Amino acid sequence: MLKMSMAQKGLLLPLSLATEDCFGTKIWPVDIPKSQAWLEFEVEGVKKASEEKKRKGYKLLLDSFEEPYGQIVSRFLSPEGILVRFVIITWLRDPTKESA
Predict the structure, then answer these.
(1) Cα separation values, 21 from 1, 14, 31, 84, 99, Å
(2) Rounded to a whole number, what is the largest CA-CA distance in the chain?
């Protein structure tokens, strides 16, 4: 079971930014249903959280990828069309590192 705390911030992004974040292009792939929403969760372990979602039928888009600025992320599309991003924000876990 994933443990989550209350959300601290909200953000609205256009689909083109989510598409670029997932696929490296501003055009959503025609063979994947378009996302209707994007949720992001900071988790203890991206691999463990990702395995749980794969077992529940979420379509894996990106598996445990390290972003250039140090975050480790996985991205999924839920059966309902929700884009889900799991992330480890390293600078939140290590107070000696600053955010970029």
Answers:
(1) 27, 11, 17, 12, 19
(2) 43
For residues 37 and 18, what is the distance between their CA atoms, to the nearest angstrom? 9
CB 87 within 8 A of CB 38: no
Rounded to 5 degrees, what angle do the CA atoms 7, 12, 17 make? 120
User: CATH assignment of 15-93?
Assistant: 3.10.180.10
pLDDT in tens, 63-81: 888 887 778 889 988 888 8
Distance, in Å, from the CA atom of 50 to the CA atom of 85, rounded to the nearest integer, reads 9
Tokens of 22: 């997932």
